[in-house]
Specification:
Distance between the termini of chain A: 55 Å
Number of domains of chain A: 2
CATH topology of the largest domain in chain A: Tetracycline Repressor, domain 2
Largest interface: A-B, 44 and 44 residues
Radius of gyration of chain A: 19 Å
Number of strands of chain A: 0
Oligomer: homodimer
Strand content of chain A: under 5%
Structural class of chain A: mainly alpha
DNA sequence: GCTGGTGGTGTACCGCAAGTCAACCTGCGG
DNA sequence: CCGCAGGTTGACTTGCGGTACACCACCAGC
């Protein structure tokens, strides 16, 4: 049994992702769930409140999913774990309903840094980066923080490129570059990041 | 003497960039210029029309600026020209009013591919890529299209990273990776992209 | 000297979305 | 039997995008 609140979050997440946050009216959301406006406002204080809840829930779930995927695909090899991030991108990009990164999108729709929505969206990137940092450290990178920065840049770039051009090959492009970086930073005679 | 239309475009470009397209009302725009709503609608058919005009003008100007910068900084050395793209990023990122890429932002605020705003925003990326492609070809890259794809991915990633984390070092990170790629693709014994 | 285009003004109005308010209904556990 | 969570209806306010209509001032050309 899914509660009404859960249903609202599901519908909202879907609409927000496909159409953007600002262009979706709450009437579409509560209408699709089958309740009235007043009922909606018993679950969420405001549209912003709903957006933040959607963002936080998706942050948690996505982090879990990514973590599981990487542990499974990466086996016990830390370097494979790092490159698993990019295999995941490939799968993601091939989905027809791909519309970029939910959190990156939120960030550009709410550019004010003091906006709680902006903060919630930023948090996801930080969570993902700190997860990657652990893998990079485990892989014996000479400078795990630098490697994480570079790989995160590649991931962000791949997502934005795929989003902009619709090019499915963006993941492969990023993967190739990532392998070079991983080899360089985790090689036996690892070079400095300069 | 700047025409009213030009003033409207200037004010709109500024507000849209700093606050986003949807969250800026046209009343702010015509108010700041000092005309009334009716007068505004004698210059532009709609808000969408204004947005497209702003986008197109900025596309032209930015392309010109980038082209000039690269020709000056790159001198006659094609490889230097390619890496000048990244030097430009560094300068751009250090500006306090940096808010990401205007066109990438437009794209996420108007995700519908049939939306003329979306098309106008996409166009900029294509223009930039085709400019880069010419430089890549001139630099004697083994596969100019592939190199362009990779460098564009890096640029996009750097912009988004800087936007998300506020990290000024994103440009340097991208530059380092770019140099590796340029060397690999333009080396005397150039390897294939695979 | 009248005509027309350009670039304005003011006011009133429509439709839609966010959000509020008040009054009322219903099922369920303590 | 009470209270509360979750729901309903309907009327209302505010703000924004956009329209309609009537009017004004200036400058250029035949």
């Amino acid at each position: 049994m899914t509660t009404t609140r859960e249903k609202l979050l599901d519908v909202a997440a879907d609409l927000f992702y496909t159409q953007g946050f600002q262009s979706v009216g709450i009437d579409q959301i509560y209408g699709q769930v089958g309740i009235t406006k007043t009922a909606f406002y018993k679950h969420f204080e405001s549209k912003d409140d709903l957006i933040i809840a959607v963002l936080n829930r998706r942050d948690q779930r996505e982090l879990e999913e990514w973590g599981n995927y990487i542990r499974i695909r990466g086996r016990d090899d830390s370097r494979r774990q790092l490159s698993a991030f990019f295999e995941l991108l490939e799968e993601w990009f091939s989905k027809p309903d791909f519309r970029g990164c939910f959190f990156l999108n939120a960030l550009t729709e709410f550019p004010n840094e003091n906006d709680p929505i902006n903060r919630a969206a930023c948090a996801h990137g930080e969570h993902l980066a700190s997860m990657m940092l652990r893998f990079a450290a485990a892989a014996g990178a000479d400078d795990p923080a630098a490697l994480t920065q570079q790989l995160m840049l590649l991931i962000t770039g791949a997502i934005s490129s795929r989003h902009r051009t619709g090019d499915l090959g963006a993941a492969k492009t990023a993967t190739r570059v990532a392998h070079v970086l991983i080899e360089t930073h985790c090689g036996r005679a690892a070079l400095t990041a300069r």
